[in-house]
Every structure is written in C-alpha cells, then in structure tokens.
C-alpha cells in the first residue's frame, strides 16, 4: 500500500513551493507582555484558570535565563513574530471540502486526506495557531476514547486537563517551556479509557504557513490503566522568505500497565527554528516508546524524555536526525529511573552532510532506591564529508548501586573505498551513498512501523540523490 503524508517524500520546498497568501481573522504579534497573553486567552474564550496559568508562565519566562545549551538562534526576534494567527475557518471542519481551497491544497499535496482514509482512526490538523480539521472514526467514540482539539478539552473536560496540563513538563523547566505555556494554541487532547486498546494510529499534523510566525501547539495524551494507543505527530511548512519559530509541547501520562507509542516525523522547510518539548510519565508496568525522525528545519532542539515512576515501567527512544546543509540538529533522549526494575533504551542515529552539524545530548538518571534498574544507550554518528561535524554529550547519573547502565558511541566517516567498491558494481555515487546511509539505519527500521519506514527510506533516497559529491 502506498501511503503519503507520513513524511513528505520530497522536501517541503519541492512539494509545497513558496507559502501561499492565506487570510486570517485574528493576528496578534509584537512584544510578549501581559496584555498579549490576556488577549490570546480572551480571543480563545478560555476559563479563568487557564488565563492565570498562562500569566504565571509569563512571569517565569521573564525571569528565566536563556538556556546555556541553546546556540544559533540569534536570528529570532520574538517581538517581531505573530504569536497567534487564527485562519479564516469558523470551526474545525469535519470534511476536507469545508476548508478554504488555499489551506486544503497544502494538505492534499502532503497526502493527509489519503492517509486518513487508509490508515488513521482519528486525525487533528492544525494550520497556523488553530485546529482547522478534525475527525474521529465512530469505533473510537463507541469505546469511549476522547480525541478533541486542545482548546475544546479545556472547556469540556477541565478537571482532567487541570490534573495533567503543564504538570508533566512544567513551565519552570526552561525559558522556552515557559514561553510555550504562556502562548500555547492548538494541539490535540487524547484520553484512552481503562483496558481500551486502539491499534489503528491517530495523528495530529501541524503546518506553519507564513514567515515570522510562532506556533505553540500543545498535545496531551492520557492512557488509563491497561490501555494502548499509537499517536503520530507530523510537521511541515512551505518555503518561507524569512524564518518562523516552532515551540511545541507533548505531555504523556501512561497509567498502570498502559502502553503509549508516540512517533514524530518532521520535515520542516529550511527556515523553521524548531523546539520540541516532550516528556512522559510511566506508572507501574507501563511503557512509553518514542520515535523521532527529523529531516528538515534550520535548527532543531528535541529530547524525548520519560520519567519511569512505577515499578517495572519501561521506555525506549529512537531518534534519527539528518542535518544536510549548514543546519543544526541538537537532539537526544532522557530517561529518569525512579522505581525498581525499570528499563530504558536510547538509540540515537545522526547523519551529517554538506556542512551539517549534529549534537547529541542525553541523560540517564537512576535514583537511589530504583533497584535493579537497567538502561542502555547507543549513540551513532555518520559524517559524509569533511565540512560536517557531530558532537556527543552523554550524561549518566547513577545513585543506585544495583543498577546497570551501559553506553556505547561511535562516529564514522563515509569512506572513498566503500563508494569506489559500489561504483565498480554499476551504482552512481548518489545511489551508493543512499545505500550506505540506509545500511547505517537498517538496524532500527524494524522498530519503526512499516509504512513509516518505507516513506523514511524514500525521503532519504531523494535527499541524497541531490548530493553533488561526498567524501
């Protein structure tokens, strides 16, 4: 089955072209201030408790220093960005024909309607700052699964939202987490009842449609005891004449015995500066698995993290980042072991080419009392030319003597002898490079759902077909 939309199979610049003019009914830009935050809350008709939460986060944003690990974002001037843009869509559509043509065409080019029809149990599509389309299949409703835009959850399910929102990833974590909570808009809310297992994935897709825009979607996934869900997040943007800024957040809570798989496939255009704040909490016997695939963007910061709170909880995180061109991918994973017999595995693979920079920052922390905890980290970097670099900054903090923590890291160069060997067998240099890159990634492809692995292969083949030479 050929399915597009999981990741654009070519760069977003090729598929979407330059950003098309779209109409907005509300656009709030300028200096980040109390009046701006209150206006966003007023426009969104939020309850007072959410307005107060935003304002507390704003106070933290103003007090917190710039994180020391942030580099290369000198271009950002927060005061010139549009922090909230409401597209000219009255309510989220439930039919693609209800969307304005200039918005619908973006998603048609990306194959999202096709993907929804063939694969997804539910979909939430965001353009600029608001959900413009969402639909959930009837069998999810019959099983009691709730999947709605985040704003709707705030109004309809305030008690549940209050319990988890900005508590799994608090705004005090760092300056950009505080900024997110102060200005958040859009995203998806999912609740899976006890014992309900949903094997067809659900997806949220986020698209930035203009320059000098900031997007702050918030996704919250709650899996009750013994449940299962696979949530997919897709991100893209057309060609932008200037930069735009993405500062999203994902929070996951897996109750006792629940399993949550969260897969992100982002292929931003080259003028997007991308922050992803992601954390999950796993109770006793629960499992959270992260898959993070990054192709595009000018700069990306993403560190999927799991707090292993309950006895026997487990988590894995597979992160694949490709930095092609003078761009930076700063990624890694964090595993916090707080309970006995917890398990974690981190696999980080990076590819640097055409002057690309890849940085791995990882953390494994085992608290005293987390008896017999086990953690394993694999960090592998492939550098394709002498203009590209890869850095590794692992950090292991083990306070429990019975824990076992292992770490291995390798950095390799694509050699002329390998390319020569394959060229002698009739392959072009581009074909040989693509084949070697896929060999580098092959051992993790089995952990990625088949449809996604197939598209990721095609994306990489297209990306490396553009190379004019390596080595």
Description:
There is one protein chain. This protein folds into 2 domains: 12-302, no CATH class; 429-471. The longest helix is centred in the C-terminal third of the chain and has 17 residues, at 429-445. It is globular, with a radius of gyration of 21 Å. It has helices at residues 12-16, 34-43, 48-63, 101-110, 112-118, 138-142, 150-156, 158-164, 175-183, 416-423, 429-445, 450-465; strands at 24-29, 82-87, 122-127, 130-136, 146-149, 188-192, 202-207, 214-215, 218-223, 228-236, 244-254, 259-267, 272-282, 287-294, 299-302, 305-308, 314-324, 328-331, 334-337, 343-353, 357-366, 374-383, 389-398, 404-413. With 471 residues, it is α/β, with parallel strands linked by helices. The strands form 3 sheets. Strands 4-3-7-10-12-14-17-20-22-24 form a 10-stranded mixed beta sheet. α11 (429-445) packs antiparallel against α12 (450-465). The protein has 12 helices and 24 strands.
Q: How many structural domains? A: 2
Number of helices: 12
Radius of gyration: 21 Å
**Care to count the β-strands?**
24
Q: What is the CA-CA span between the terminal residues?
A: 36 Å
On the 0 to 100 scale, the average pLDDT is 88
* Category from helices, strands and their pairing: alpha/beta
